[in-house]
Amino acid sequence: MPTKTLKYDTSNAKSLLREVAERSGQNLSACYQCRRCAAGCPVGEETGVTPDRLVRMVLLGDREEALNNLLVWQCVACYTCGTRCPNNIQTARITETLKQMSKEAHLAPLKPRVADFHSAFMQAAGHHGRFNEIEGMRIYEIKTAIKDLKKGGVKAVFDEMFAQAKLGMTMTKKKRMHLKIDKVKNVAEVKALYRKAKQGKGE
Amino acid sequence: MTMELAYYPGCSLHASSQLYDIQCKMVFDNLGIELKEIEDWNCCGATAAAKTDDFLAIALPARNLGIADATGLPEIMIPCSSCYSRTLVSQKRLSCDPELKNAINAELGQKVEGKIKVSNILEVLRTKVDSGEISNKAGKKLEGLKAACYYGCLLTRFPCDVTVTDDVENPQGMEIVCKSLGVETVDWSYKTDCCGASASVNDAEESQLLMSRIMKDAAARGANCYVATCPLCQFNLDAYQDEVGKKYGIDQRLPVYFITELIGLSMGFDPIAMQVDRHLTDAMGLLKELKLI
User: Are B127 and B24 in contact (CB under 8 A)?
Assistant: First the structure.
């Protein structure tokens, strides 16, 4: 995949670097572009963006690219990059931070299903305090189906439902489906943590 | 003498990977370790919290840590790699950030003290190999199994500086346990590579590509099964192996055993009681073929 030329935005560089460094807790300036992270990244080939590029985007102040690239969405959080960094930069924390900033900037996710899955997971985990697979998948499937239908993607909805139903049937046959909903008794305490998280973001 | 360990099963072990929960209890009980499931635990937030909310990523495991500290037990074992990683990271972060710790503790009935030792399943099992207790209890040699020990990401790689209990790039814990059961292990290159985790649901192309690399190497090294400790790694290879194999032209379909299944078999437990028949890629056939059951 060809690499895009990054824009050097002098007015933006300092503030973007400070924001990402503070939120991720990572010293991005320590990166000397050795690209060991890139060599270890399992999704770099497909995304065309590797962790070293993310660092460059931030250092150059290219906010648009930094918040809107495939690695931010397709990073599988395997933490290989950070483990191999000779300067101990946890690049995956940078990816996580940029993903959150992208959402706060209301940018449309490049991988809507990834965004929907994470949000469905958090919603389901917050509901009863424990993640229920059936509930989580239901929220996720509804979110993606609505988006697909808006785009006129009836086939995409059908394919997704078919794949999930097939897996669901195999799991049922093998007694791997559990219909019982596991609940935290003191779910109020979990919900208080969710509220505090929202307050922290000024929502 | 019975030893007590605090125990956090996590959501998977109470749902699709319940067999792992059952096996953990059976195996540890036989080793004289009582697993005390902590009261009223909640979801650790897994990767979804890390990706979407820095506060919840620390606060959700923190609530469990508070409950675990209150048990007064010295150690908590967490079999799921993701739960283990998130809990260990939360404990580390809170030890470096008293302000955050106070903010979270203000919401909790049982406050995080940060004193309990957070352990993964291999850490605990290795001490039992070293003490000879595993070879005492698990006497049946599982000859004929050639295992590709699959660790995945989160047992040895963390997004912050914590003490890693095995070699980061070439961990050996699972091999040590397997060898003590008479299981042969293969040297291979993909033991700590990523299976795609939840990408199997939200980005199937990506996770299938990642799984195909793992499957090709395991097959090329002559493994006849995988062994895993992470319920999500196990589930992905178990549920999607056939689909990935067809797509990428890989013929082998290898059972994906939990480490607890192999220990249990060696201890003489009934495979049905351990729910080995509930795998999505057949796990009974190989054991019958090798006359291990």
Answer: no
